């Protein structure tokens, strides 16, 4: 919560809930329902001004980058133009590109936390 509280408190839902093949079961500790979550599993929130989107990545990528399809310029979610991308609790400046298909963000040299990784995406 210390690292990722910003993506939860005072945020709103985005028009797209998330992306990925797995859906965690709701309710009280539904067993192993979160065991298969990986870097393709992304959930979204936004700030009140609607100029920042938080992409919560539920696993550390095996490859060199995070890929968020819903934030591509041509996505049906119509996210807007990306101006800046940060990984919360990470001081490293990350390279990123927004294409029609996706937002691709270079992963950091080290994980900033142990569980979910939040990209703070400033939009216009």
Describe the structure.
This protein has about 120 residues and is an all-beta fold. The protein has one domain: Golgi alpha-mannosidase II (Immunoglobulin-like, Sandwich). Helices cover about 0% and strands about 35% of the residues. It contains no helices and eight strands. The strands form two sheets. It has a five-stranded antiparallel sheet with strand order 1-2-3-8-5, with no helix packed on it. The chain has a three-stranded antiparallel sheet with strand order 4-7-6, with no helix packed on it. The two termini are about 30 Å apart.
What topology emerges from the helices and strands here?
Layout: E1 11-19, E2 42-47, E3 52-57, E4 65-68, E5 82-87, E6 96-98, E7 103-106, E8 117-123
Antiparallel strand pairs: 1-2, 2-3, 3-8, 4-7, 5-8, 6-7
Name the CATH architecture.
Sandwich
Q: Give the CATH superfamily.
A: Golgi alpha-mannosidase II
Write down the Rg.
Answer: 14 Å
| Helix fraction bin | under 10%
Order of strands, widest sheet = 1-2-3-8-5
Which structural traits does this protein have?
single chain; 124 residues; mainly beta; Immunoglobulin-like; five-stranded antiparallel β-sheet; three-stranded antiparallel β-sheet; 0% helix; globular
Task: Briefly characterize the structure.
With 124 residues, the protein is an all-beta fold. The protein has no helices and eight strands.
